[in-house]
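Structure request: Adenosylhomocysteinase, Thermocladium modestius.
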Amino acid sequence: MQIEWAERNMPVLMLIRERFQREKPLAGLRLSASLHVTKETAVLARTLAAGGADVFLAPSNPLSTQDDVAAALAADGIKVYAWKGMNEREYYNAIGAAIAHSPQVTLDDGGDLTITLHKLAMGISDESIQYARETAGDLDFKALVKGIYGGTEETTTGVIRFRSMEREGSLLYPIIAVNDSYTKHLFDNRYGTGQSTWDGVLRATNALIAGKVVVVSGYGWVGRGIAGKAKGLGARKVIVTEVDPVRALEAVFDGFEVMPISKAAEEGDIFITATGDMRVIDYNTMLRMKDGAMLANAGHFNVEIDVDAVEKNAVGKREVRPFMVEYKLPNGRVIYILGEGRLINLVAAEGHPSEVMDLSFANQALAAEYIVKNRGKLTPSVTKLPEDLDIEIARLKLKAMGIGIDELTEEQRRYISAWALGT
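Returned structure:
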């Protein structure tokens, strides 16, 4: 029923599925995906399978899998290796199993599948690679990588990782940065994360946001969404912390206070990180916080809040609610860390609403088709989905919502394309 509800609210992806069912553009394709296993991801997996792909689905976070969804997909015949609450070994066993599927296209959310595959091909070993080898087996990973047409990346963190690999010359196959599509980051990151982050915080705490001081670290599209929703929920003050002068200035012009995290630490009631970087809130910052401060993370990896440091230094710890752990600090104050410092919207809630994932996963489906159509023509680089496909997704979404827009007249087209016309 959950998947059916998501399908009802994902009309663009369902239109793509109808076409995929007729045309079979992915016929015979082996596709491995490392994505959050949610009801919306199930709609994408079914769409890819309708297009003819042999789909293997692994998680992209140890705590984000919806077990009933995973079971339903397995019953559909889609290969799934995921459950909620995996430990590190189990998680990388799942990634290894996705690699053992010998994919020709990879889909990623955060980059763990693609980067693990690159490490295996390059002979790089660490603990995660040892775990992945347990299920990946003794494949010729270099040959496997050479046979991959390309991959996709869903989120900002993963795109940053792949662009770093591209700069270093270590990227071995093409990556479509789905996150960079306008119909992804302008909507998913801002409206989807903005709403679902607060959904996770509210489920974990049942706190009243009205009257509180909220601190948002990072003012990219995700931070913008979180800060805007905090204001809408009645926060008394919303403070933004940033390292980028342009984004900091934008936050000021949007009506938020901007200050360093060291100062914001003394004012905030609720802290949410959204930067993609590590130790944004470190232990010394926690020591400056008010008694009872709540900390959550909206970035992909669990590194933005230094949970390890507080685990090491706290003089007391107890779980007071599901996904809410109280730490007593040496100075006598307590703080609450939500969702183990992992993605709060998927740990304590259900992730983004289906309506916004309709856009994101339409990009994923069309990116997979684009990679197959252009196999052998793409170079090992990070590129966007072609703009015409991005625009088509927006057009289909507007149509599904019953919204019409204007069209340029021929005279208007000539005017904006001509250089000689002046005052």
